[in-house]
Design goal:
By secondary structure, the chain is α+β, with helices and mostly antiparallel strands. The chain has nine helices and 21 strands. It has helices spanning about 10-15, 30-40, 165-170, 170-175, 200-205, 210-215, 260-265, 330-365, 375-390, and strands at about 20-25, 45-50, 60-65, 70-75, 80-85, 100-105, 110, 115, 125, 145-150, 155, 185-195, 225, 230, 235-240, 245-250, 280-285, 290-295, 305-315, 315-325, 370. The strands form five sheets. A seven-stranded antiparallel beta sheet has the order 2-11-10-5-4-3-6, with no helix packed on it. A hairpin with a 3-residue loop joins strand 17 (about 280-285) and strand 18.
Length: about 400
């Protein structure tokens, strides 16, 4: 049964969010961006990746979190625990691991003086140790970073003492998605796009459906249910303490592309990877501050994507997109997965182009604010959360 699309229903569901314009200054002000480094990205849980990237003991990856000027080493220890460390040798501050990912060969060795560390972060070897003064190796291990895992997603928190656990931070998102079979899907493709846009500008552009029938009329067209066959509307919206989720339904009468019809014929496998936790055909979660989790109802098994908008400067960011699919059971299904990746890639490239044009317009300061309609409530809420967190000294 199709959702009845109602005018101005979300402002009635969440009357405290307001209806007024949203300031453009946080997206273009250098001083605001500098405060975000400390008050947003050093205080909250940040997604680093997934456990499948480090499946066995000694596997690691390095994430450069430029907004905090921190290099982070994430590694699975010999005890199977996932840990995060500052990627810094405690001897003289040298960057410890230079490769983006790999397998620890027993010890992480510093290229400057060959100090060596275990995957658990302990200092294991110091050359010419007897020439140091009162050296206590137990106090000179790698500097740990708070790290936790939820449903296979690895998060870190740079605060020495986080105000809340990861579970408390995720709140309603975790409650909704507990038990989702993310582990039944595999990363097939990653794209990284360097954008001349503020990280929030990119997130805002993705955090709504209003633009779909206009900007994506050739790549998506009428794939989603639209009011009066003209305007995309949310089927559901839920707002949590930091996060939000909106959902929409596929249009059963959508016009199919010729290649799409071919893919539907060759993709004849039915897998058991079904996400019972989905709210509708397509759910879009904004996990504060810079992550989006997208759940899709797929013909031959559900799949998911993640977005991470990594801040670089007030007008620069890196948009990282990751595509996860069930393991293909035949050639046809694998081909359909690749076709889906390519179609979504083309759609998202239209978005990337628009992000930069929006940033240019905001930077011109032609207007001091942005006007939001009812189905842009999740953008309004995101900015409200940002302002709330920035106000905390």
């Amino acid at each position: 049964m199709q959702t009845r699309l109602i005018d101005k229903q979300w402002c009635e569901k969440y009357p405290d969010i307001g209806k007024g314009p949203v300031s453009t200054e946080p997206n273009i002000c250098p001083e605001y961006f500098e405060l975000e480094r400390e008050r947003i990205f050093r205080r909250h849980w940040i997604n680093m990746g997934r456990v499948e990237e480090i499946p066995t003991a000694g596997k690691y990856f390095v994430r450069e979190l430029e907004v905090c000027k921190v290099s982070i080493l994430v590694v699975r220890g010999n005890d199977d625990k996932v840990r995060a460390f500052h990627n810094v040798c405690p001897h003289r501050g040298n960057t410890l691991v230079l490769n983006e990912r790999g397998q620890c060969p027993g010890r992480f060795g510093c290229g400057f003086h060959s100090w060596a560390f275990t995957p658990e972060g302990e200092l294991a070897y110091v050359p010419d140790e007897e020439n140091f003064f009162d050296l206590d190796k137990s106090k000179l291990g790698l500097t740990p970073i708070n790290c936790d895992v939820w449903e296979g997603f690895i998060f870190i928190n740079l605060s020495p003492e986080p105000n809340e656990t990861l579970r408390e931070f995720l709140g309603g998102v975790a409650t909704q998605l507990d038990g989702t079979p993310f582990d039944k899907m595999r990363l097939l493709k990653t794209y990284k796009v360097k954008e001349n846009a503020n990280w929030k500008t990119g997130l805002d552009a993705q955090n709504e459906l209003y633009h779909l029938p206009f900007q994506h009329r050739y790549t998506i067209g009428n794939a989603l249910i639209m009011k009066d066959n003209k305007f995309c509307r949310f089927a559901n919206v839920n707002l949590y303490n930091y996060h939000s989720v909106w959902s929409c339904e596929y249009n059963p009468n959508a016009t199919s592309l010729p290649t799409e019809e071919v893919m539907q014929r060759v993709d004849n496998a039915l897998t058991d990877v079904r996400v019972k936790q989905r709210i509708s055909d397509f759910d879009w979660y904004l996990i504060f501050p810079n992550m989006a989790l997208l759940l899709f109802n797929g013909v031959s098994g559900d799949f998911f994507m993640t977005y991470n908008f990594w801040p670089v400067a007030v007008d620069k960011c890196v948009w990282e997109m990751r595509y996860h699919f069930p393991i293909a059971e035949n050639v046809g299904q694998r081909l359909a997965q690749e076709w889906t990746i390519c179609r979504l890639r083309d759609t998202l490239m239209e978005d990337a182009f628009q992000h930069e044009k929006i940033q240019s317009g905001l930077a011109a300061r032609a207007r001091p604010d942005m006007v939001m309609q009812d189905d842009e409530i999740t953008i309004r809420y995101f900015h409200e959360v940002i302002e709330r967190e920035m106000a905390r000294a």
